[in-house]
């Protein structure tokens, strides 16, 4: 069976051909309590280099690049992604950032080019995570930082249970926060772990329908709309149903 989480062609040409699916999943965090601005929290953990390059590897629709722009970062920023469609979505929020279509296993950067390299919620999409980590280290200068974002094992567990009860395989992340930490400790001398637990309190079926419809397994199913209807009906059985609570557990690993 093909692992959709690491199928480059599927990721580039279907799941992330544009940022529509990613944006659908991002939008559900409007119901997070306590509300966590993960992008700001992560960048607050590091000292941005006063000059030089910040490289956002697997930048998606560019939220970290946009935050660098908002903070008036004076150095150079570069967003790298496998999908040209994602880079097109990133451009409006970070018009001064450089953008490059590339694979993390062969980054178009010289050794030590970046003072800060970000790899946020992308390592589980890489066929060989260890190779990707070595490449992240290669392009980061001595004394620089690599920040890797991953999720804990409990992340979205309530959503996963309902989807599995509906007979659909939930996309299990190939690299968890724990596994990522173990991998990174084998490459970097210092790894500091930060966690951001919270909950989503989703008030109705609309946001969940968008979320479920965006999943790789839903999109590859014979009848995606039926899957969405089944899952949302299991959660919201009537119009007076209570908000659906979902655990979120993001984390990041700051490596030196």
Question: What does the secondary structure layout of this molecule look like, with pairings?
Answer:
Blueprint: H1 8-15, H2 20-27, E1 32-33, H3 38-44, E2 53-57, H4 63-70, E3 76-81, H5 84-90, E4 98-101, E5 114-120, H6 129-139, E6 140-151, H7 157-165, H8 177-185, E7 191-202, H9 205-214, H10 216-220, H11 224-235, E8 244-255
Parallel strand pairs: 2-3, 2-5, 3-4, 5-6
Antiparallel strand pairs: 1-7, 6-8, 7-8
Q: Please give the CATH architecture.
A: 3-Layer(aba) Sandwich
Distance between the termini: 37 Å
Q: CATH homologous superfamily name? A: Vaccinia Virus protein VP39
Low-confidence stretches: none
Largest sheet: 8 strands, mixed
Alpha-beta classification:
alpha/beta
Tell me, briefly, the overall form. globular
> pLDDT average, as an integer?
93
What is the helix tally? Answer: 11
Integer-rounded radius of gyration: 18 Å
Tell me the count of domains.
Answer: 1
How much helicity do the residues have?
A: 25-40%
Count of distinct strands: 8
Arrangement of strands in the largest sheet: 1-7-8-6-5-2-3-4
């Amino acid at each position: 069976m093909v692992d959709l989480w690491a199928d480059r062609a599927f990721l580039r040409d279907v799941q992330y051909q544009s940022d529509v699916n990613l944006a659908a999943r991002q939008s559900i965090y409007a119901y997070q309590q306590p509300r966590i601005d993960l992008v700001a929290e992560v960048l607050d953990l590091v000292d941005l280099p006063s000059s030089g390059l910040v490289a956002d590897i697997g930048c998606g629709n560019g939220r970290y690049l946009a935050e660098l722009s908002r903070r008036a970062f004076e150095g150079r920023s570069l967003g790298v992604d496998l999908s040209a469609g994602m880079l097109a979505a990133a451009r409006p929020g970070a018009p001064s950032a450089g953008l490059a279509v590339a694979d993390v296993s062969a980054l178009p950067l010289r050794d030590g080019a970046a003072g800060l390299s970000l790899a946020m919620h992308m390592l589980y999409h890489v066929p060989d995570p260890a190779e990707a980590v070595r490449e992240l280290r290669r392009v980061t200068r001595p004394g620089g930082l690599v920040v890797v974002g991953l999720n804990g094992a409990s992340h979205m567990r309530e959503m996963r249970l309902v989807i599995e009860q509906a007979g659909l395989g939930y996309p299990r992340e190939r690299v968890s926060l724990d596994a990522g930490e173990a991998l990174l400790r084998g490459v970097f001398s210092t790894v500091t772990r930060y966690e951001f637990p919270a909950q989503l309190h989703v008030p109705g079926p609309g946001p969940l329908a968008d979320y479920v419809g965006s999943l790789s397994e839903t999109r590859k199913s014979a009848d995606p709309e039926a899957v969405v209807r089944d899952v949302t009906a299991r959660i919201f059985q009537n119009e007076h149903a209570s908000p659906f609570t979902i655990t979120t557990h993001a984390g990041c690993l700051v490596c030196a």
